[in-house]
Amino acid sequence: MDLGLPDMDGIAVTQIIRNMEEPTNKILIIALTAHFNNEIKESCRQAGMDDFIEKPIGHKTTQKSWRNI
Length: 69
Description:
45% helix, Rossmann fold, alpha+beta
């Protein structure tokens, strides 16, 4: 989920998805942004995101994220 979406940020979109989804059919949501800090990470966690990837994305970053989920 890109945190820098043009009309609504990714945190708000994630909150909408989490409120609409069925508990038995959870959608995997991974935050994506070039501007991570502890405050943003905590906001992502509170919104219900499953993991974080910081741009630029490389092979090692992608592998780490897949292992986390």
